[in-house]
Write a structure and sequence with these properties.
The complex is a heterodimer of chains A (290) and B (237). With 290 residues, chain A is mainly alpha-helical. Chain A has helices at residues 2-9, 12-30, 32-37, 43-65, 70-95, 103-125, 131-140, 150-169, 171-179, 181-186, 191-213, 218-232, 236-261, 265-289. Chain A is 82% helix and 0% strand. Chain B has 237 residues and is α/β, with parallel strands linked by helices. Classes of the chains: A mainly alpha (290), B alpha/beta (237).
Chain lengths: 290, 237
């Protein structure tokens, strides 16, 4: 087993996959606590469906421009997918509390709407011969994590650094705004501005993470580490650190397992996350009693 | 000199006014209790004082050295807080957020201030505990310590004793009174008219009849007598 692993590790594409996997899982775990506590667990789901819809639009535009190489497609689509997702995230998080359609309903509405439109557009305009294969890999994560090129890895590294740096820099503000938004506003913290920053960070993370696990499973990367860490740890800092470590370990395990057994990368990582959650839940129960 | 002056305030949502032409002021060191039935706009008034909401008309002036963001706020518990993983220290420290401005981290002075206020509230030994696992009274002390990190001038308390048992309620009232004696102005929303009359210096009664004045004056008015008797009757029954 270890032989197989070390054999695969000689390949550049496997190393790339591991780097990207670790970075994405680290980023996605950071804001999990905030989103779970703000009752926004499903924002990942909603946004990733928006990203799916945007991806469909992007691929149509690419097709009409006549670029048929899949590589350029995925890079061009980033330019379209990222802004659309960020705008949706801002709309969802910012207006969530005051609008007549409440947070969860708004997310559900946007989520299924984007999914339907995306699939519809792909069906009408797509030139691909393997349409259901395309859709399936966008939803559940493709093997594309194993076919990354150096430039994409760099893009991922840069975005991850930005996300982690932003999170560390705004850590105390994010805590304040999540724990008690009214108090934060009352003492003059610009809560709306920080909600905006949270929304942007989350959108970037989701677009990144779609590569790894696909748009249906993105939510798992965001909420499982946070929920698991919350079973055991009691302070915001320790929960955040634990979630990050949990997420990275699970992602590594998942990638290795999927290499060894030839299983789909995304769903293997999520399965490992689930197993980790149950272990933490049991440990929390036992620890809580003693 | 008044720290807070509300002139001709009209408050409400979407063109339906809850409170009209409200006038009152809070002087330094005052202890004002806002009483009234449910739905008369007590919380709306509080949100307006904190500038979380705009008045439909009228003005609120902050003066005598009080800045609008120097009001410490003790909100009612929210759903989010019930399962929030945060240590007592983290919660208290977040009271300093107005002081750090754009800086990312808390300084030594701010940490010292948080520590001082934890001692003041008698919760130093809880500082590593998880906020959600504390009793209701302990949680309120934590939130008070946080509010004190934000200000030394004025505290706004939104039903600070709701859900507390009688003994803890009395302790809480004493603690608030003690802060008031130290020179911090208090504005408190309360359902408990007896404690309001007992501890406060001024009463603002809102509802179909409005009254603002000292406790002594309030007891003499028809409104005050009626309200006190009625409440007493209810409690005896």
């Amino acid at each position: 087993m270890l032989d197989t692993l070390s054999y695969y590790l000689n390949f550049n594409f496997v190393r790339y996959a591991i780097i990207v996997g670790v970075l994405i899982s680290l980023c996605s775990s950071l804001l999990g606590v905030t989103l779970v506590l703000k009752r926004f667990s499903f924002i990942g789901d909603g946004l990733s469906h928006v990203a799916f819809g945007a991806m469909a639009i992007a691929s149509i535009i690419n097709a009409s421009l006549g670029s048929d190489s899949t590589r350029t497609t995925s890079q061009n689509s980033m330019i379209i997918v990222l802004p659309i997702t960020i705008i949706s995230a801002v709309l969802l998080l910012w207006t969530g509390q005051n609008t007549k359609i409440k947070g969860d309903a708004a997310i559900a509405m946007i989520s299924v709407g984007a999914l339907a439109i995306g699939y519809l557009l792909m069906n009408i305009f797509s030139t691909s011969t393997n349409l259901s294969g395309d859709v399936c890999s966008t939803l559940f994560g493709s093997t594309s994590i194993l076919t990354l090129r150096a430039s994409e890895v760099w893009l991922c590294i840069i975005l991850s650094i930005v996300v982690v740096a932003a999170f560390v820099y705004f850590y105390n503000k994010i805590f304040a705004v999540t724990f008690d938004e009214s108090f934060a506003k009352a003492v003059g913290t610009k809560a709306n501005a920080y909600n905006f920053i949270i929304a942007v960070i989350i959108a970037v993370i989701i677009v990144l993470a779609m590569n790894l696990v696909g748009s249906l499973l993105v939510t798992a990367l965001i909420i499982f580490p946070a929920l698991s860490a919350m079973r055991i740890f009691k302070s915001f800092l320790s929960v955040t650190i634990c979630a990050a470590v949990f997420s990275v370990v699970c992602a590594l395990l998942g990638i290795f397992l999927s290499i060894i057994y030839g299983t789909p990368v995304g769903s293997t990582i999520v399965a490992v996350d689930m197993a980790g959650f149950f272990i933490f839940a049991i440990a929390g129960k036992i620890g809580g009693k003693s | 000199m008044s720290e807070l002056i509300c002139k001709d305030l009209t408050l409400g949502y979407e063109n339906s006014a809850l409170i009209e032409n409200l006038n009152f002021h809070v002087n330094k060191g005052d202890y004002l209790c806002i009483v009234g039935e449910n739905g008369t706009g007590k919380s709306t008034l509080m949100r307006t004082i904190l500038r979380l909401q705009k008045p439909m008309s009228g003005t609120i002036e902050y003066s005598d050295g009080l800045k609008s963001n120097e009001i410490g706020y003790l909100p009612q518990q929210t759903l989010v807080q019930r399962d929030f993983p945060a240590s007592v220290k983290e919660v208290v420290l977040s009271g300093c957020q107005a002081k750090i401005g754009a800086r990312p981290f808390y300084s030594k002075e701010e940490k010292a201030l948080a520590k001082k206020n934890m001692e003041r509230m008698g919760i130093t030994d809880l500082s590593k505990r998880c906020y959600r696992e504390l009793s209701g009274g302990q949680q309120q002390r934590v939130l008070l310590a946080r509010a004190l990190c934000a200000t030394e001038k004025m505290l706004l308390l939104d039903e600070p004793v709701s859900g507390l048992d009688p003994k803890v309620t009395i302790d809480m009232y004493k603690l608030i009174k003690q802060l008031n004696d130290e020179g911090i102005s208090i504005i408190m929303i309360s359902h408990d008219i007896y404690s309001a009359v007992k501890y406060a210096s001024h009463i603002l009664h809102i509802g179909s009849d409005t009254f603002f004045g000292t406790v002594k004056e309030y007891k003499k008015t028809k409104l005050g007598k009626l309200y006190l008797d009625e409440k007493g009757g209810n409690e005896n029954a």
